[in-house]
Amino acid sequence: MPVTWFLTGASRGIGLEITRQLLESSSNTVFASCRSPATAFDLDALKSSPGTLHIIQIDVMDEISIKAGCSKVLELLNGTGLDYVINNAAINHAGDLAFSFDPAALAETIQCNVTGPALVTRFLLPSIEKSSRKVIVNISSPLASIGRDLGPISTSYSISKTGLNMLTYKQSRERPDFIPILMDPGWVKTDMGGEGAKIEPHVSVTGILNVATKLTSADAGKFYTYLGKVNPW
Ligand SMILES: NC(=O)c1ccc[n+]([C@@H]2O[C@H](COP(=O)([O-])OP(=O)(O)OC[C@H]3O[C@@H](n4cnc5c(N)ncnc54)[C@H](OP(=O)(O)O)[C@@H]3O)[C@@H](O)[C@H]2O)c1
């Protein structure tokens, strides 16, 4: 049975690794979106993989781009369902603090990390409704968690990911037939995570996909780590 996947931010980091692992199976069709397909060379190189890859242009900061990219996905799906939506693309103006943050950076971070995923999922709705799976994985962060008490760093980013957490809760309550969840990928060695991070992208992504493919309706609205543990709010 073919399985269909969509994700944002597939050009590098965790998104590229998600695409790479999914395409190892010929039963997966992946709609991998990125904001600049013309320069996404590592993503393009995955075209020879066993799975089916469609590269879609989406800038999650731009509603027109999101609408056009999602329409393209619906067109390619040709009336079949979309099983998994992974909202992965995000930015982090690391280093900003609660008493010195730049309001423009906060607005930009919320646009990218909350409004973007909300619109992506909204425009993909007709295809999610046609799936028997209906999984939405919103990639969050431990910095979204007040319970984890991670201190003053990355204020705008943390606010945005806490907003994404609430969006996911709302999605799960508005559509009890969907399985929207939050995923903490761990501290991962990517451009965002930095060299000092704890785990390699392949370790994080193996865990993310293991959790995602086992989700049931009882998991809707939960905040999981890539190891399948529940994060505190
Ligand atoms: N790495 C970690 O330790 C860590 C920890 C917790 C949570 N996360 C979360 O995991 C996810 C992936 O992070 P990462 O570490 O892979 O980050 P990354 O290496 O910085 O990659 C970010 C990805 O997001 C894309 N992106 C940024 N702005 C975009 C936009 N406006 N439109 C479309 N795509 C955009 C980038 O595309 P371009 O190539 O076009 O810039 C890139 O593909 C994010 O949601 C992040 O918050 C990461």
From TrEMBL:
InterPro entries: Fungal_SecMetab_SDRs (IPR051468), NAD(P)-bd_dom_sf (IPR036291), SDR_fam (IPR002347). The keyword Hydrolase does not apply. GO terms for cellular component: cytoplasm. SUPFAM superfamilies: NAD(P)-binding Rossmann-fold domains (SSF51735). One of its GO terms (molecular function) is oxidoreductase activity. The keyword DNA-binding does not apply. Keywords: NADP, Oxidoreductase. Belongs to the short-chain dehydrogenases/reductases (SDR) family. This is NAD(P)-binding protein.
